[in-house]
Each structure stands twice: as C-alpha cells, then as structure tokens.
Amino acid sequence: MTTLKRIIFTSKRRTTGLTDVTITIRDAGNTAVVSSASMTELASGDYYYDYTPTSAGWHVWYADSTSQSAPLSDSFLSDYSSVTTLQSTAADYATTQQLARFMRIEGKIPDIRPEGASRAKENVGTGDNSATLFYLDHGYVIAGTYTLYKGATESAATAMTETTHYTLDKDTATVTLTSAGVTLVGTAIIWASYSYCLFEITNTEIQDSLDRAQTEINQVTNSRWTDGTATSPNYELFTNEVYDGKGKFERDYYLDSFPLPDVSTGLNGTHTAAITTLTVDSTDGFLSSGTLNIGTEKITYTGKTSTTFTGCTRGAGGSTAAAYSDDAKVYPYCFEISTTEEGSTIVWNVLEKDIDYDIDLQTGRIHLYRTDIVLDSLSGAHPPKGTPSRLRTSYIWGYNTIPNDIVRLTMMIASRELMHGTARHALVNGFADFNPNTLEVDKEWIDKTFERYNNVLVRTT
Predict the structure, then answer these.
(1) Of 29, 148, 194, 320, which residue is most buried, by most CB within 10 angstroms?
(2) Buried b (16+ CB within 10 A) or exposed e, 266-296
(3) Are the C-beta atoms of 188 and 150 separated by less than 8 Å?
C-alpha cells in the first residue's frame, strides 16, 4: 500500500498569495518523480501538494517560489523551504482472507461442506516435462491461502515452492511453472488447496479496499499500529522532520508522531569509520531500510540481514563518521540541532543520546540538556528561539501491537466499500431490490471505535 501524503510548505516569512510555488520530489535514486509541480495555498503562507509515493524507499522534496529570493548558497533548499522524506508502507491491519471470512464470502478447496465424503485436493493437471500453464477451477484466489503439490497420487504429493517452482495470478487463477517447476513436476499430477472469493471479487479489489480502510483509520486517529514482534515491523518512517528553535530556556520538543518503539541493538565487534556494512547483535525491530544513530554520527542504510545493516552511508547529513568499539549502541532514530542564526547556512550537529538529550518514547518528548551555566549566560548549545528548522528528527513510530478493535474496524470499513460496489453492480444490472440501510449496518460501531482511538494532533512550538 502506498499512502497519500499531504506535503505542506510553510513560507518562513508567511508570504501569502504566491502563485508560483513549486515542488520537486526525488526518489532514493535521485530521480525526479515530480518536477516543478504547482502547490496550492492552504492558509496564510502555507502551501500544499498531495503526493502518493510511487515506490517504497525514501522520497525527498523541496519547494521554492521563483518570485522570491534565490536559494541560499551551499544549499539546494530555498530560504522558504524545509525538507522531509517519505516511505511507503504496506497494509497490515487485516488480510484479504480475514476480510473474506468476515464477510462470509470465502470458498475452500478442499471443500469442507460435503457430508460423509472425503475432502480431496483439486487435480489441476498432469505435467508432460514441457507444459508451463495450468488453471485452477476457481478464479478469485485469496492471497496467503494456497499451496500447490506434485505427485502421482494425492496422498504421495509434496508441496512445491512459490516463485522457485511456480507463480500464481490470483485474480485469474493462472499457474505458470518455472523451468525448475517443469523439471520438478515431470509427468506427475499437480494438486492444489486454496481459498477463493464466492462473489467474484478479486484479491486485488479486496486488498485495495483494505489499503484504503487502513489509510482512513490512520488519518482519522492520527495513529499507527503494527506487529512489533515481526523481524521488520511496519513502523512508519519520518526522515528530516524539522522544528523551529525554542531558545535556551525552553528545552522540551515534541515530535509530531508517537509513540516510538523501544528498539536498539549493539555493534558486534569493532568498526572503522569506513565500514559500510555494520555487523550487530540483531536487526530485529528495525525497518528494512532507514536511518541509524551511533554516538554523534548519522547513518543511513538501504538493506539488512538478521545481523547486518547493508548499504550504509557513513557520516550522513554532514555528520562525521567515526570508529566504534564492540557493543556500541545503535538506535533507529537520530536527532540533530542547528544553533546558527536565521539567514545563515544551516549546519546540523547530531545529538548523542543520554548525553545531549533524553527522550520519552511514549509521548515523543525530546529534552535537550543544559550542559553548563556560567553566571549570566547559559549554554549556547540550544537552537535560537523562533528560528525555523533548527531541530531535525529522523525516527520510526507506531504502536507495537494491533488491537482487535482496529482489525475489526479495518474489516468493517473495507467491507462497507465492497458492499457499495456490489450493490451498484446489482442495481445497474437490475438483479434485485436492495435496502440501502444494510450498507450502514456497522456505522455505529465504526463511529464509536473512531471516537475511542482518536488522537487530536497538536504541534507545540
């Protein structure tokens, strides 16, 4: 699932009425996926652009107004813009099989309905050492429910491996054997067990409805849930989210999104400043790609194994790559400050956890330590008050469990959408009378669940 993102660009001088504000978005390969697109004024000095990431990974944007001053020297960002990154996420609140069962539209092979009869797998066809195309008896196959087998008899059949031996187009129920699959099957019979939709709704359509339901839930509640026990939990990633400085006295900053998961690991062995594959105790709980922090260094990575982060860019964001000893702490978030004044080139300094700041993971509160007091002056290590873009944050966020209420809410919203489509189809084709009130059978439950989980987003400045 790719999620619609509303990118808001705030004119630092609150310039209103601009008609030439444009936005450019680049993907992780530095390819412009949106070039100089027009932004629309949302409020006084705020301009927006709605964008759906075209692929997984980072998407960096910057905005400018050609009628205003040119970009600052040594920076591709204009005096009016800020930068962030987006990462698309996959829907995981409910599966297509869960929704099919919730709606009572799941059919099964072997068929469990016959009384006093055997529950046989489906005989898909017999191989001939060359045939690659086979077809299941039922289309509209549901994801995650199917297994193909090969064997001379059903009782002797052994499971085949998807991708290695075959691919399956779930919507059309077309099985395509790979060359390895053709060799494996030989002249044996292909057998199948699977679930399918009884009412001619494809898995793609069901998944699209689930995607839209999850997006609606996230937007209405200002929250995000995921399975924190997964190897790579589906937390949402924010990169380079910026905040205005608060000065020397007010040292608490609040992230726009929370909670942050309690995730960290340790380096396994010593590492030089040049190493681009970090070996750690475990990468469980970290995203498959993202941002890391060790000491005062910011590191980005493009992949991971169970014990390594790969494709690392050391000294990211202008930080300094350093050598580390065994067991050095690695975090999935990074916080930076700039103490430069407005109008000068921004220089970012990475903060070190428990030395420069502490964080309340549940509330997203970042507290900057006041390191020294010298009579009439306080430490200068705090962003000047009111100066834009002087705290920069990169972090993952989301609740580490998916409540049953959220699973059910997802299925209710998705099923309502599917029922609307089915009702329109029936009415257009003149099949039967239809009571529209049945489409709102879950409305009260949906409203109450939204009320219970809604978090009002308030940003402190």
Answers:
(1) 148
(2) ebbeebeeebeebebeebbbbbebbbbbbbb
(3) yes
Greatest mean pLDDT among 133-137, 230-234, 370-374, 382-386 lies in: 133-137
Strand partners of residue 357: 353, 368
Query: How far lies 8's CA from each of 5, 58, 84, 254, 404, in Å?
Result: 9, 17, 10, 19, 33
Whether pLDDT at 86 is above 60: no
Tokens of residue 411, six digits: 């299925």
Q: What is the DSSP string of 145-173?
A: --EEEEESSTTT-EE--BTTTEEEETTTT
pLDDT, tens digit, 9 for 90 and up, residues 89-104: 567 899 999 999 999 9
Tokens of residue 229, six digits:
């026990």
Q: State residue 61's pLDDT score.
A: 72
Q: Judge if the upstream peptide bond of residue 110 is cis by omega within 30 degrees of 0.
A: yes
Are the C-beta atoms of residues 340 and 72 closer than 8 Å to each other? Answer: no
Closest CA to 216 of 453, 459, 458, 460: 453
Q: What is the mean pLDDT of residues 56-61?
A: 63
**Domains (range + CATH), the chain:** 1-86 (2.60.40), 106-197 (no CATH)
Which positions ≥6 away from 430 have C-beta within 8 Å? none
Are 166 and 148 a contacting pair, CB within 8 Å?
Answer: yes
CA distance 230 to 393: 24
User: Residue 376 is encoded by which pair of tokens?
Assistant: 């009439």
Question: Is the CB of residue 65 less than 8 Å from the CB of residue 9?
Answer: no
Of residues 168, 157, 176, the one with CA closest to residue 194: 168
* Phi, psi angle pair for 358, to nearest 5°: -130, 165
Distance CA 16, CA 270 (A): 53
Return the HEC string of 208-250. Answer: HHHHHHHHHHHHHHCCCECCCCCCCCCCEEEEEEEECCCCCCC
- pLDDT bucket at 19, cuts 50 / 70 / 90: confident
On the question of a cis peptide bond just before residue 71, with omega within 30 degrees of 0, the verdict is no
